[in-house]
Amino acid sequence: MSIQRLFIANRGEIAVRIVRAAQSLGIHTIQAHSEADADMLAVRMADEAVCIGPAQAAKSYLDVARVVQAANDAGADAVHPGYGFLAESPGFARAVEAAGMIFVGPSADTIERMGDKVSARQAAETAGVPVVAGSDGRIDDMEVAAKLADQIGYPVLIKASAGGGGRGIRIAQTPGDLAKLAPQARQEAQAAFGDGGIYIEKFIPQPRHIEVQIMGDGTDAIHCFERECSLQRRRQKVWEEAPAFDLPEPTREAMCASAVNLARAVGYRGAGTVEYLYDAASDEFYFIEMNTRIQVEHPVTEMVTGLDLVAMMIRVAGGEPLPVVQSDIHRKGHAIEVRLNAEDPLNKFMPFPGVVGTLDLPISDGIRVDHFLYEGYQIPPFYDSLIGKLIVHAGTREAAIDKMASALDAIQIGGLKTTIPLHKALAKSPDVRAGRVHTQWLEPWLDAGNLNSQTGGAS
Amino acid sequence: MANIQSPVPGTFYHRPSPEDAAFKSPGDSVAVGDTIGLVEVMKSFIEVQAEEAGTFADYAVENEAAVSAGDVLATLK
Predict the structure, then answer these.
(1) Which distant-in-sequence residues (6+ apart) come within 8 Å of B18 by Cβ?
(2) Residue A327 has pLDDT above 90, yes or no
(3) How many other CB atoms are there within 10 angstroms of residue A357's CB atom?
């Protein structure tokens, strides 16, 4: 059963992206919006629009009953959740299906299984995907902890099992450290959480974040190679690339194959991403989690493969088998995406929800801007600060960085403070150019004052 | 009588978290720099602080109300 009427239960740039993909497939689009989003770009582009409640996301985009009711009332036969909001809510996926519509994504059971850290790790291990070695649960016997640490190999991370917020975390470099630090961690966990349980796992210093794009039709699954997302601030990705840089070919193949194995093992349907920590020093990778949705950074994969991932996920949701086989998918060149946020990077990344002034977006071969802006548009303050993504594609990584630098010089988004200065400074960084970056690199680089009005250029 | 205005647009909260009491109640004394509420803007929480001292009169807008930059959030007497 192919989809005729698609309800888009999201906003911002991804709603625009979904409307475009659906319209390219000849599908009638129905755009959901809150009261604060009545004038957003996706509403203007869609065939129909439906208000689903007040500005606050909890009363609109996150209200399962309301969204399902609105989709049903509009005569939708499918619902696309985008990313964020209800995209990874098994309850939402179930409610959509219970109302007789298609959820554009994997089954509710798969979302549930991959959304739970313990069951996701089990699914990964069962499918032969490497996981970070560690205790499977809490350890109370310190002799057991010492034996396990010897097996895993030092350094090891000691974490409170009840924890959160980094409390109780210690790094033990040696057995002596473990003997000294484990009781401290237990004490701190006991004081903070009323539970002194700890667990240990292998500590990977300065890991890189590499993830594999997969697509499944419920039976078969393919990969669309990997992305490198090591430049992160407060665990938010800032700058993404495809492919990962300086990744040994056998490692790339093993990473992609293990992601496909996991997708097949869970009967995955739709677009998904298997995230890994990559330890460049040992050339080892470890499963972090699987995201059961389209991701913000999907365009870099589209640029290097030429595929339309959003259209493909809609087609497989409608019941089509995968339209491509693995041997059809090739990588060409190098793509980089930067996230344009309405924030002032020169003032502690303070949010800046202003009115869009003059808009001048670079348009040329190998440059793409995914966004939801138009001149005079008031960015609502109620949602996250992502206003768009600038994506470039060139023959090599060197050339892609150069192209990004000149696109950043050319782009003009008037009226707002944006993260453009951050990206200009990153494009000039010798560490970024040489690929000497990892997930712990960006924050100290910012703290050291590497972003200033000089390196960031005029915003 | 002094007004405390919102520094940014967003959603105004009287309380640090849904389980907690309001930052201030009518009659409370307010010192310079005291937090009287939070404005959530683009998923960040900005503390709204008193710029002068006084006695808290009341909130001028409901908890969880949508506010614009410059809106009066609370008054002091």
Answers:
(1) none
(2) yes
(3) 13
* Coil, strand or helix at A298: helix
In tens, the pLDDT along A372-410 reads: 999 999 999 999 999 999 999 999 999 999 999 999 999
Q: pTM score, two decimals?
A: 0.91
Q: Based on the residue annotation, tell me whether A293 is a catalytic residue of this protein.
A: yes
Distance of CA A425 to the CA centre of its chain: 23
User: Which is nearest to B37 in space by CA: B11, B57, B55, B1?
Assistant: B11
Q: Which residues share a beta bridge with A131?
A: A287
CA-to-CA distance for A342 and B42, rounded, in angstroms? 9
Task: Tell me: pLDDT of B21 over 70.
Answer: yes
Residue in A closest to B64 by C-alpha: A56
The token pair that represents A346 in the structure block? 């020169």
Closest CA to A241 of A393, A18, A445, A421: A393
Q: How much is the pLDDT for A167? A: 63
- Tell me what pLDDT residue A459 has: 44
Q: Which residue has the tokens 């949508």?
A: B66
Quick one: closest CA in A to B11, which residue? A382
CA separation for the pair A14, A12 (Å, rounded): 6
Q: Using DSSP, state whether A267 is helix, strand or coil.
A: coil
ipTM of the complex: 0.78
Chain B residues near residue A351 by CB distance under 8 angstroms? 8, 41-44
Length of chain B: 77
At A357 the pLDDT is 97
> From the CA of B11, how many Å to the nearest CA of chain A?
7
Of A5, A293, A315, A397, the catalytic one is A293
Q: What is the pLDDT of residues A50-99, one digit of tens each?
A: 999 999 899 999 999 999 999 999 999 999 999 999 999 999 999 999 99
With an 8 Å Cβ cutoff, are B42 and A36 in contact? no
pLDDT of residue A328: 96
Q: Is the pLDDT of residue A331 over 70?
A: yes
Between strands A156-160 and A208-217, the pairing is unpaired
Is beta strand A334-341 parallel, antiparallel or unpaired with respect to A386-394?
antiparallel
Q: Are A196 and A187 spatial neighbours (Cβ–Cβ below 8 Å)?
A: yes
- Rg of chain A over CA atoms, in angstroms? 23
Do A381 and B10 make contact, defined as CB atoms within 8 angstroms?
Answer: yes
Q: What is the 3-state secondary structure (H, E, C) of A359-401?
A: EECCCCCCEEEEECCCCCCECCCCCCCEEEEEEEEECCHHHHH
Chain B residues within 8 A of A353 when measuring between CB atoms = 8-10, 41-42
